[in-house]
Amino acid sequence: MKKYKITYQDENRVKTKIIESSNLKEEKLPSKILTIKPLSEKKDFNIFKSKIKIDKKLLISIFYELNIMLQANLMLNDALSILSQNYKEEKLNKFIDDLKKALLVLDSIDNIFKDYRLDIYIVSFLKLCQKNGNVKVNINAMSILLKEEMKIKKEFSKAIRYPFILLISLFLSINIIFYFVVPKFKIIFINNYDSLPLATKILFNIHTIYMSYFIYLILIFICMVFSIIYIYFKNKEFEYLVSKVIFKDVFFLRDLYSSMELYRMFLVINIMLESNYEFIKALNSSKTLIRNKYLLDKISLIENLLKNGKSINLSFKRANIFDSLVLNLINTAEASNSLTLISKEIKDIYKNRFDEKMKKFISYIEPIFLIIIVSLVLWIILAIFIPIWDMGSMMKN
What we know:
Layout: E1 2-10, E2 13-21, E3 33-39, E4 52-53, H1 56-71, H2 76-86, H3 90-103, H4 109-112, E5 116-117, H5 120-132, H6 135-189, H7 198-234, H8 236-248, H9 253-274, H10 279-286, H11 293-307, H12 312-319, H13 324-336, H14 339-396
Helix pairs in contact: 1-2, 1-6, 2-3, 5-6, 6-7, 6-9, 6-14, 7-8, 7-14, 8-9, 9-10, 9-14, 11-12, 12-13, 13-14
Family: Belongs to the GSP F family.
Organism: Arcobacter roscoffensis
InterPro entries: GspF/PilC, T2SS_GspF_dom, T2SS_GspF_sf
């Protein structure tokens, strides 16, 4: 008996089920099957086994150099041999040798890179190379996307660094105040609790909770986070719900996230159309990069509608995730038979939208953090000093 993971379309939703069978032909299977994957029975439970991690900058450099050589029409074997000569480190040479096995389809990607800790996009593009055989196109797309990813991470880390340092400083300061300042201050004024200002009462109550339940609250928070992560990966319905909420409903983040995901999608579509692939094959290839289950569901819906003879414009409208500008461009592309040109325009639109949203995010995040921190500091100062000022006024009188 073998286990199989079946992905299928059901009422405009992508679903999965596990079937255990010795002969799949004798089983009652769903009507609209997308993929059937056998599940390995042997699993490695050695949690202490460390995976090979290669620096992201080196990976980008490797694929950038490989892309340049392939675009210059060098043979794949020659390009990989040159790469091996360029990198002397044993770990990198092993990776390039394994990359050669993957690109020559000597084994599956999952088996070849099971001991590596690689970015999901690298694995996805290498699977595309094995699936459609066009190494040159996919390495070019991977090189572009990896550079974009690195640029985005640099911009985001630059934006978040200063607020993060402020938050750490605030956390340490509050801990020092709660451990050394508030207890002594509390002894002086606890007998006059009813006459204290509201800010001071709140400070005393929070201090009591903090000193009594801080460790428990931290443990509860950690358990909740791990529980949500566990349910997310184990429950497909919950994973789909979270993906939908992030893609459609989270204020501001939805525009940033959706623009980036759709940019990646149209980047792959455009590159493959420029290499004379059919639109439906280019769309199918782009699905490999999509991790958001809600978006994947919508793209699978578009693909199925296209397979059933519907027009590209109608299929994209039915997905209900594209705005009127993009739909008008798709309609124009289909009518004028200029899908390659228009896909590049749509890719640039989503890239520009992402850049604009990222700039807004960077411009908003620092003042928001500063307002939060200043408000907390002001509250603590008022909670401590107002009773002292009142005491000073009473002593003068």
